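Reopening this ticket.

The earlier resolution said the output was attached, but the attachment link was broken on my side. Pasting everything inline this time so it's all in one place.
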Amino acid sequence: MATSTVTTTTPTTPAPEAVPAAKTTPVRLTDNAVNKVREIMATQDPLPAGLRIGVVGGGCSGFQYSMSFENQSGMMDKVYDFNGLKVFVDATSLMYLNGCVVDYLETLEAAGFKFENPAVKSTCGCGSSFNV
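Inline output:
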């Protein structure tokens, strides 16, 4: 089951205008993912401005995906708009997320966000980290 971290940060810089997300954006969220993020965001107090998606070092294969709520974007972030949901991605993470599709899946066995990333060369046995 995929896990994600949900945090809220204090505003530090003005948010740039969100770019409408098209099928050509470096990272794409499915409708299921957007709807689930909105559902989780609605339970937060205060309501976050958007979702941060990133890649961080760690795990047995070298990198892990991260998701967290933010009150606003950072200075070096690209901001995408998925049907009204703002998604913040830092420039470094964008290099690893090019072509990535984020989906939300629910099965009898598990539920969670799934990252389909064409740049991934290998994953670890548990599936929570990857190598490019």
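Reporter confirms the inline version is readable. Residues 31-41 form the longest helix (11 residues). The chain has one domain: 19-127.
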